[in-house]
Amino acid sequence: MNKVCANAGAAIVGISNDMTLMLGGFGLCGIPENCIAALAKSGVTGLTCISNNAGVDDFGLGLMLQSRQIKKMIASYVGENAEFERQMLSGELEVDLIPQGSLAERCRAGGAGIPAFFTPAGYGTEVAEGKEVREFNGKPHILESALTADFAIVKAWKGDTLGNLVYKGTARNFNPVMAMAGKITIAEVEELVEPGELDPNHIHTPGVFVQRIFQGKSFEKRIEQRTVRSK
């Protein structure tokens, strides 16, 4: 299988209206910038997007919120995106807010073929409404179902033409678990190399999980909240 695509536009071919997408990243760290920009230009609508958050107003998934391409967000944090907040409060956007650890584990479970699991996170809150509750070691837990997607779109530091991926630092975040949970996984990388150039001991996502890969360009790598230590 030839997994290499020429660019983001070629990589997202097949993504159509009303599909479910997973998009890696945490804040603006490790987001698939090129693919999101391509999706924003594509005009596809009615999407359900699974992502830790939705970028900011003029970058990341915020671009797709502005153009009303997203019907539903499954996320854990909305605090840095005013348009996200406005659409949610006005009822224009359906939002499923999930505790961050539960979101990560639901994606991981989906990739591992585990249909559901019990967790104490969210018990006694709105998160638990309508969900089965069981007690383990004297503590109540709620049943959470796995998450999967039609397409998972991730960002890696390096990748080879077979789809093996290496993430860098905190950009690793949600990318590895989401890469496992898509029916089709697209990886955009900063550097695309030939097979054998990556140390097998350093590979975070094996190529078996990746169907499409391309070398991105012009990564902005914005910093969402710049914090510096005082002298």
Describe the structure.
By secondary structure, the chain is α/β, with parallel strands linked by helices. It has a domain at 15-97 and 148-215: 3-Layer(aba) Sandwich (Glutaconate Coenzyme A-transferase), CATH 3.40.1080.10. The protein is 20% helix and 27% strand. It is built from 6 helices and 11 strands. The chain has helices at 8-11, 33-42, 62-66, 82-90, 100-112, 175-180; strands at 20-23, 47-50, 70-75, 94-97, 116-119, 133-136, 139-145, 149-160, 165-166, 182-193, 212-215. The strands form 2 sheets. Strands 1, 2, 3, 4, 8, 9, 10 and 11 form an 8-stranded mixed sheet that branches. Helix 2 links the parallel strand 1 (20-23) and strand 2. The longest helix is centred in the middle third of the chain and has 13 residues, at 100-112. It starts with 7 loop residues before the first helix and ends in a 16-residue tail after the last strand.
Sequence-ordered SSE layout with sheet pairings:
Layout: H1 8-11, E1 20-23, H2 33-42, E2 47-50, H3 62-66, E3 70-75, H4 82-90, E4 94-97, H5 100-112, E5 116-119, E6 133-136, E7 139-145, E8 149-160, E9 165-166, H6 175-180, E10 182-193, E11 212-215
Parallel strand pairs: 1-2, 1-8, 2-3, 3-4, 8-10, 10-11
Antiparallel strand pairs: 5-7, 6-7, 8-9
Organism: Neolewinella aurantiaca
InterPro entries: 3-oxoacid_CoA-transf_A, CoA_trans_fam_I, NagB/RpiA_transferase-like
Protein name: CoA transferase subunit A
